[in-house]
Amino acid sequence: MQGISSDIGQASLTLDHLALMSTTYRQGRVSCLAVTTDDLDIFDQMMSELIQLHQKWQTIFMWQDGPLVQAMKAGDLFLVDEISLADDSVLERLNSVLEPERKLVGYLS
């Protein structure tokens, strides 16, 4: 059995793993006197709360294309007004859009 990851990117796999553990104990495939039915009920309640938190996290961080990406996907023009006022870091990221490959490169820190 694999270890349980604390990485949020692995949350779905971790929740599946925890559900499998609960099912295994409930079906009696694991003999452990220290784990009672009440313990499993509490564990399942915590699992339910974790699933709800994961669903909220997914909606908070759901990607949405902005106007530039929408224009790029549609092959439309995109007007950047007063570009001379933009920060240098913004201009660096827009350089890749002006190249023949037309890619938007994001840098996460």
UniProtKB/TrEMBL annotation:
One of its GO terms (cellular component) is nucleus. Pfam families: AAA_5 (PF07728). GO terms for molecular function: ATP binding; ATP hydrolysis activity. Keywords: ATP-binding, Nucleotide-binding. One of its GO terms (biological process) is ribosomal large subunit export from nucleus. Residues 53-103 form the ATPase dynein-related AAA domain. It comes from the Eukaryota. SUPFAM superfamilies: P-loop containing nucleoside triphosphate hydrolases. PANTHER family: MIDASIN, MIDASIN-RELATED. This is Midasin-like.
